[in-house]
Design brief:
Order of helices and strands: EEEEEHEEEEEEHEHH
Number of strands: 12
Radius of gyration: 15 Å
CATH class: Alpha Beta
Strand content: 15-25%
CATH topology: Lysozyme-like
Strand order of the largest sheet: 3-7-6-11-5-12
Shape: globular
CATH superfamily: Peptidoglycan recognition protein-like
Helix content: 10-25%
Structural class: alpha/beta
Number of helices: 4
Distance between the termini: 10 Å
Length: about 190
């Protein structure tokens, strides 16, 4: 699997632009990759609800949990489905709204300088092989494209928002992911 990056767009990812983004601050460079998880309703996969949330079209009546989040205005740059399909929602040169209150290495507001990737999953459901492979291939493309982004700056949401967030959770196998990433670098 190979991705290319042209003007902030990942090819051949499906691009479904979310309105939930804005400009990065002047002079800020991309230097962090944040791995998240999401499932809607919680613990359920498929159904298009994540896309609806990122497009402000989540039907609050479709599930009791949705009444608590339907008014949120959030996005991530990308989503990797359980089958490994990559969908992009925000141009990488723009600021997606994925991190919330956050800090990495003493620098707050991680949305300003990060790329957010959601994995369809939960903290305690094992991620799929296609998800690891897609995330590794995407990460390798990003590492090659953004000089200030290095492997040690690929972190979980829990790292930048400790005590507030737990994703991608204990089910995410960081050593295996980094092994996949190393394999991508040798192709």
């Amino acid at each position: 699997m190979h991705f290319s990056l042209i003007d902030g767009r990942i090819h051949p990812a499906l691009f479904l632009p979310s309105p939930n983004h804005n400009a990065r601050p002047e002079g800020v460079t991309i230097s962090l990759l944040v791995v998240h998880n999401i499932s809607l309703p919680p613990g359920e996969f498929g159904g298009g609800h994540i896309q609806a949330l990122f497009h402000n079209r989540l039907d609050a009546q479709a599930h009791p949990y949705f009444t608590t989040i339907a008014d949120l205005r959030v996005s991530a740059h990308c989503l990797i489905s359980r089958t490994g399909e990559l969908t992009q929602f925000v141009n990488l040169e723009q600021r997606a709204w994925h991190a919330g209150v956050s800090c990495f290495d003493g620098v707050e507001n991680c949305n300003d300088y990060s790329i957010g990737v959601e994995l369809e999953g939960t903290d305690d459901t094992p991620y799929t092989e296609p998800q690891y492979r897609t995330l590794a291939a995407l990460s390798q493309t990003l590492l090659s494209s953004y000089p200030e982004l290095i492997a040690s700056r690929i972190v979980g949401h829990s790292t930048i928002a400790p005590g507030r967030k737990t994703d991608p959770g204990q089910a995410f196998d960081w050593p295996y992911f980094f092994s996949c990433l190393a394999d991508c670098g040798h192709q």
